[in-house]
Amino acid sequence: LLTAISIERCVSILFPLWYRCCRPQWLSAVVCALLWALSIAVFAAVSSLCLEQKESCQVALISMYALDFFIFAPSMVVSNVLLFFKVLCVSQGPQPKRLYIVISLTVLFFLLFALPLSIWNFLQQFGYFLVPTQVVFLLACINSSINPFIYFLVGSCQKRCSLVSLQVAFQRVFEE
């Protein structure tokens, strides 16, 4: 879903006229539904192969990790780099809104904390153990718990940072 959000946000900035006028309203929902279906199908296939056919398990796991590492993660990185250059370097308009900051921080922390687990899993299938298991799982746990803090901090900062309730912080972030 982070990949879909990143790509859609990038398209909305790079092609604003097409995005506002020609993009079907249902496109986001269909893309997210397809991504959920793909995730469920891949997980079901890998689970089935690993439970029934042990010899096919490693191939299935490598395929799943390759899909994550070579398709979804690069798509997020490319779309966010393009967006970064478009909004901050080319655009003469105001700085990005809170929602853009939230999504950028979420993607950044995903790349820093969750991607190492994908890389580790992928390399482990080939017998490489570069980092202890505890380190990559700690990073993944940090990634799982950091998003509410991002929402709170970005939602509570307007002209000057002030602490507000979590509900108000979420409301401010998602109103934009």
Automatic annotation (TrEMBL):
The keyword RNA-binding does not apply. Residues 1-151 form the G-protein coupled receptors family 1 profile domain. It is found in: Membrane. It is a multi-pass membrane protein. The chain crosses the membrane at residues 26-49, 69-88, 100-123, 135-154. Keywords: G-protein coupled receptor, Membrane, Receptor, Transducer, Transmembrane, Transmembrane helix. It comes from the Eukaryota. GO terms for molecular function: G protein-coupled receptor activity. The keyword Acetylation does not apply. Gene3D superfamilies: Rhodopsin 7-helix transmembrane proteins. GO terms for cellular component: plasma membrane. InterPro entries: GPCR_Rhodpsn_7TM, MRGPCRFAMILY. This is Mas-related G-protein coupled receptor member H. It comes from Chaetura pelagica (Chimney swift).
